[in-house]
Amino acid sequence: MLAIEKHFSKFARVCGFKVEGERGFDPMTETMAALEQDTKGAKPLSSSLLYKFAEDSSGVVFSEGSIGCWFEIDPIVGSNDSIEKNFTMFFADELPAGGYLQFLIIASHEVEHILDMWQGGRKYGGQPLEKMTAYRRHFIENLARDFSSADDGRLARNYRSFVTYSIKDGGDKTVESLLKFKKKLENKLKAENLNPRSCTAADLIVVGRDLLQMNLNKKTKRQQKPKYNIFNNLADQILEPLVPNTVEIDQIIHHNTGLVSKVFAPSELPESFCLAEMINLLGNDHRSIPGRFVISYTIANNLGSKGASAMNAAGSRSIHAAQKSYTKNDLVAQEEARQWVEVKALAKRGESFLQESMLVMLTAPSNEIEIAEEVLKSLYNTYDWKLEPCKRIMRISSLAMLPMMQYSYWPSLKFFKLTRYALSGEVVAKLPIQGEWKGVPTSGALFIGRRGQIFNWDPFYRIGGGGNYNFVVMAPPGSGKTFTLLEVAQSMISKDVAVFVLDIGASYKNICKVLDGEMIQFNHSCNISLNPFASLADSGAVLMKALQLMEQGIDDEEIQLKTGLSLERIEALRIGKSGASAGVKESDGIEILEIKGQDELGNIKTHFVTKDSIIYAKAMLATMCGVNGDVWGEAIIERAINEGVAKYGRELDITKLCQILDNLKDRKGEAVEGASRFADCLYPYTEEGTHGRFFSNGANATFKRALTVFELEELKNDEPLLAVVLQVILMQITMQFLCGDRSKRFMLIVDEAWLILDFAANFLERFARTVRKYGGSLGVCTQDLSSFSNACGKRKSQAAVLECSTWKLILQQKEEGIASFNASESYRKFAPLIASVKKCSQNKYSEILINTDGATVVGRLATDAYSTAMFSTEDTDFKFLMEKEREGLTKHEAIMALSKKYGTLPELGSLEGEKKCISYS
Predict the structure, then answer these.
(1) In the predicted model, is pLDDT for residue 471 greater than 90?
(2) TraG P-loop domain location, by residue (predicted)?
(3) pLDDT tens digits, 164-183
(4) Alpha carbon distance, N-terminus to C-terminus of the chain
(5) pLDDT band at 57 (very low <50, low <70, confident <90, very high)
(6) Rounded to an integer, what distance in angstroms lies between the CA atom of residue 881 and that of residue 858?
(7) Is 364 within 8 Å of 292 (Cβ atoms)?
(8) Burial state string for 789-799 with b = 16 or more CB within 10 A and e = fewer than 16
């Protein structure tokens, strides 16, 4: 046509029909025709979107012919009958006529905001931990974008769940009814602990782009959440301009990214299904979907009374027909009638007739999409779902998955047979609101759920506000125990928590050297004094000052400024002074005792000590003297401690305490029978005794480093001494933080605790019960549950240590370990889950079952090459590092060399978000 127009234009000029300078054709017409040819008839995808504008203040989104609202929710972890019953009633009674409720879940590769929170909390530890943070972040981001990692169980994701509602736009009255239902829906979601958050226009832009223009480009700079411009059409702001894609019969090709999307719908459904099983459609323990997938499930209350009557009438006809003589042997007719009888009975009990539609979108690189599709279909087939691609309607089916678009696209879905009739109770079982635990909202140790959800775990965060900060780790050798504890240690150090580790076997040597920690080795050359009474006499001085300020009516903030005590510790003082029960005071209160007496010079002295410190000291000495549980013996020891504090104050040590015991008099002035025997028992720990060098010689330990490791390898064959050293360390650390840095938190990890638990159980029980109020966390590592068993009735303290630990971490167990869990009433119900916990045979991750009130989840600890090299306890790796250090390399350089065995590390200066390259001298 254009060629003909040009010829006619030339002809007109020759014949003089045009004046000079006048064009013979319309330039705009020719331009549009050329554009049509260049783009092969392409139209902007945004022109197919129906969104018009949004009101963030009310949460209402206005579209062509419809209005809607939406929430982002937390997933349900686990399920119970009450949730299904409540939703069934809600759909039957509360879902407005003409309303469309969509449940949308996105298995997103965008994990940045979780990593931002994790990285934002890691402010301490200096350059070594900055480096570890950068490597770990890069590693997790790569896992999230590398769908091939689905094969080895390390595909990281962030599952985002939404509930959207749309209805026909009928003017102001419709908006009012929408807002009323929005509030009702929000309250229902809150009641089910789904923590709904009202979404905004900016959220819609993010989700719309994620669904229709997914981008795996790792080098794309992370951007702030896009801003919604109220002056422009919302549909034009959803998508990035000039991003081409082609719709084919069974796929959508994204040209710029090399990705391909496919949309599927279930052609067959399982005969029976329940809400708890829906999580299997996200993947299972052994199979992950190697692509980004989206599940959209919509419930429509659009039949009205007329439609419901028609359904009932159809059922009545089927039942009536089955009663005829000519159908009595027709098995199909009889089965259909039986089903209608059940349906009508459910409807009579209050269930409503609804319509449902389910769509699944899968996106993966073009060279991986076929594999991803087969895995997806195979996974669904396992649970009796059969998926078929939405051939020839890929575009409309993908648009129908967008938030709040269900009202508009329902007629199309119905036309292409992508909708079904269902009862309100039936649809609840198919809600895609199951998911994995999202962890605690603070930075901590990073784990990956079995279905990919990355999450943080921090023992200092208490779910629901109850419990303490203690944790136990049950892990036999070879299960990944050291990796787990090292990950916890470095995570806490990065948050300014002082970490102390009692280790046997030098497992913490590498991290201690890299993080400039202090390693105290208990051997013949040890020059550190662990005098258990070093700070005892002053343990309550500052606390007493705080109590005096309280009595003067000074507010807590002012007391905090004057004493340096944390608000939590000030509250503990108040509880200790209150009329609370003994149990509450033990776990939550700090009590101060006043000890008066004459010092060596005859001066009257008053010492303020904490009640806990006296009990700690008594329990420790009772262990050393072998009188645990002996009321008389413990009373004599307590008297000796009080007299020692009064006489010697800060100078009290075990040698001087023995002198007190040798000269201890009763109220009649006579020598206390048996006290000298206790002094004899303590002799090995005095200046002249075999072990005296550990308790009096050398300088007192100050614990100023972020990480302090007590290496007890040379004491492991002397379990009683090992138990005593453990208790002295625990007591000194507590006193250090009670009298020193009174606002800083600390953690003590007792590795290989099964070696000494029976010798120090009483002390550990007391420590576990009271350490929280001093800002401390106790981590006790044993092989399995049997270490805490009180089946014989004589190990109450061992069982109490477990009971006093809010968090339980269980790694891969041996047969005897699984047997101990099966024998426990408390853990029998978790035994199958515990038995499923595994360590990857290729050492790519270790699984950890994390159990507390309100959460029982399995996380996978997968570390970057640098952390893997640092944490490794393999003999060959240990020898390699020793050889490199002998060659003159620093510990960091040696670890960098070893890391090549476990993967490739990027140059830190090239990492996205890095302001400068972190280097070591």
Answers:
(1) yes
(2) 467-533, 677-900
(3) 999 999 988 999 999 999 99
(4) 74
(5) very high
(6) 32
(7) yes
(8) eeeeeebebbb
